[in-house]
Amino acid sequence: MNTTTFDARPSFAGEMDAQDPLATYRTKFYIPKEKNGEDCIYFCGNSLGLQPKTVRAYVEQELKDWELLGVEGHFHAKHPWMPYHEFLTTQTARLMGAKPIEVVVMNSLTVNLHLMMVSFYQPTLARHKILIEGNAFPSDQYAVKSQIAFHGFDPATSLIELQPRPGEAMIRTEDIEALIEKEGQSIALILLGGVNYYTGQCFEMERITKAGHAQGCVVGFDLAHAAGNVVLKLHDWNGDFSVWCSYKYLNAGPGSIAGCFVHERHAQNTELSRFAGWWGHDKKTRFMMGPDFEPIPGAEGWQLSNPPILPLAALRASMDIFDEAGMETIRAKSILLTGYLQFLLDQHLNENFFIITPRDIEQRGAQLSIRVKKNGRALYDKLMAHNVICDWREPDAIRVAPIPLYNSFMEVYKFVEILRGL
Ligand SMILES: Cc1ncc(COP(=O)(O)O)c(C=O)c1O
């Protein structure tokens, strides 16, 4: 299917749903309801993914084992808590296109970002800058500025923010490469969102990594909006580190546990400065309680604390669904859903609206951001009143994300009809 074969009749949405290999997955999730008991149109899984129905059983298993076993659950729970995070390693590696040694689930996203910068942002007088995308998520902006200041530099001179060309919304990859080539020798770290939270642009991570490494820069990615959304090949793309959260596309629940990737080439590097904690210590000697830190080789060596089991259980429930559905199938449906949404919006929207997300499917994920020139916030409020759950991002965008695991083509059709009506 390509975009030219989309059709504006409602029967088309029905036909697409009938052919959808993931159609039954919707029943695996709780869909928020309207007052009359009907399902809301939930296009906000880029902010908070819906609850898989299996989460309860996974979490209750741990509650039961805690009830029955107390501390012994660390060793004798059905899924012992001592190695519990390891139950997620294979699936996480598969989803992120990484080797098992390169991934770990731990902490929350901004915490992991800081931990990674402790190791991978080592500014010198000659090379002290951080390159981020303009309009990066505020937490990333705060994190990089505070790291720059922590090292005694000034964000006003050490932070470079990529901007699109005047009149454009997406940042062209060739412009990113040109900037890196020009200023790379002064850049210590390139840190981009895999998918920008505001525009929905999916950056060409492999090309950017290559350009950065050619200039001697460290390259990392914040994959909050990419994990579980687009197909990732983190090992092959060769970036130095990545971080992500699990409460958006990964459906592991509000504030759930985050993830971290450290490329294999750094697995044994004890020269890197890092903040250490006992859970990153060699598993064989961790309980000898010795004073000297010996990191586990690989991403696990960056762990600080023993992890929270209940969020890990929720994440396991969701990752089992991802495994069963397959990321390639999820992405294939996502491309059709956003293609269809764009097709309908193109048919019906007037000049008050502009889709700022790239039209090239390779450069976007499940989200389309619609810039509304006038009265955008009021329109968003009306959408919410019509039981469409999407979100509004200042200053002027409605973000809409049909999620392949639980949204349908008919919902896309209905959404555009409601928008037209308003
Ligand atoms: C791109 C990006 N980075 C960072 C964060 C902050 O995440 P956390 O609060 O889990 O640290 C978010 C949250 O939505 C985000 O979208």
Gyration radius (Cα, Å) is 22 Å
In what order do the strands lie side by side in the largest sheet? 2-8-7-6-5-3-4
Indicate the proportion of strand residues. 5-15%
Cofactors and ligands: pyridoxal-5'-phosphate
Percentage of residues in helical conformation: 25-40%
> What is the succession of H and E elements?
HEHHHEHEHHEHEHEHEEHHEEHEEEH
Put simply, the count of helices is 14
Structural class: alpha/beta
Largest beta sheet, briefly?
A: 7 strands, mixed
Question: Mean pLDDT, nearest integer?
Answer: 96
Task: Characterize the structure shown.
This protein has 422 residues and is α/β, with parallel strands linked by helices. It is 36% helix and 12% strand. The chain contains 14 helices and 13 strands. The strands form 3 sheets. A 7-stranded mixed beta sheet has the order 2-8-7-6-5-3-4, sandwiched between helices. Strands 9-10-13-12 form a 4-stranded antiparallel beta sheet, with helices on one face. Strand 6 (218-222), helix 10 and strand 7 (241-244) form a beta-alpha-beta unit. The radius of gyration is 22 Å and the shape is globular. It starts with 9 loop residues before the first helix and ends with a helix. The mean pLDDT is 96. Bound molecules: pyridoxal-5'-phosphate. Pyridoxal-5'-phosphate binds next to helix 5 and helix 6.
Provide a quick synopsis of the model.
This protein has 422 residues and is of the alpha/beta class. The protein has helices spanning 10-19, 55-69, 73-76, 89-96, 109-120, 138-150, 155-158, 173-183, 205-214, 234-237, 309-325, 327-348, 376-385, 409-421, and strands spanning 41-42, 103-105, 129-133, 159-162, 187-193, 218-222, 241-244, 259-262, 353-355, 368-372, 388-389, 391-393, 397-400. Strand 5, helix 9 and strand 6 form a beta-alpha-beta unit.
